[in-house]
Amino acid sequence: MDWDSVAAEDVIEALREVEWSTSPRSFAEFFSRFAFPRSFSKWMSRLKCNLYYYRTNYFILLIFVLGLALITRPLAILGAALTALSLAFLNDSFAATFNEKMIRTIRHFSPHLAAKMRPPHMPVIRGRSATRKTVYICGQPRLVFVLLGLIASLVLWFTSCGLLWVLYALTTAIFMIVLHATLRTPNLKARLNTFREEFRAVWRNYSEI
């Protein structure tokens, strides 16, 4: 895949739609080969490739750094966990899976309430939705849960007096992720995996027509 022709918006869109349930890459692979990019275009291409390929590893690294920095502040740790959950809701697959599990759990206690939490029916034209598919969580657009989670996180951080410390830890984690994505050379396995996921996406779109 030619990552030079892939825009940053396309990478963000792919990260939003791709499956995040895959296992993280092994420790040996994650820290195997490093080298400085030879040009700005090579750096941008490598950055986009590694952010997509090692997405699960970077998410775990982000949570680990935040947890390590906030280990003496329980409320701040809870706020960081809510932030991670809110950001995870932005991924289509995670939001849909979370919604199904919540509805199944609520169905055991109140089938009527679980039925109300089902997403509304979307009209279909020629095998495709008339509008862009909106992801729902417990009957509400996922943006509602994302905003509520982020607001609750800010309240917890202010309560624990750890907002500046959280920002410092978040900045450190982002710096480590960008540094690794800059220096880690894309291997053959990453390229083959990208081609395979690209084929699956094309095949899925073809089957929906």
Write the layout of secondary structure elements.
Blueprint: H1 8-17, H2 27-30, H3 40-53, H4 55-69, H5 74-88, H6 92-109, H7 111-116, E1 124-125, E2 128-129, E3 136-137, E4 140-141, H8 142-159, H9 163-183, H10 188-207
Antiparallel strand pairs: 1-2, 3-4
Helix pairs in contact: 3-9, 4-9, 5-8
Can you tell me about this structure?
The chain has 209 residues and is mainly α. The protein has a domain at 79-120 and 135-165. It is 67% helix and 4% strand. The chain contains 10 helices and 4 strands. The chain has helices at 8-17, 27-30, 40-53, 55-69, 74-88, 92-109, 111-116, 142-159, 163-183, 188-207; strands at residues 124-125, 128-129, 136-137, 140-141. The strands form 2 sheets. A two-stranded antiparallel ribbon has the order 1-2. The protein has a two-stranded antiparallel ribbon with strand order 3-4. The longest helix has 21 residues, at 163-183. The chain starts with 7 loop residues before the first helix and ends with a helix.
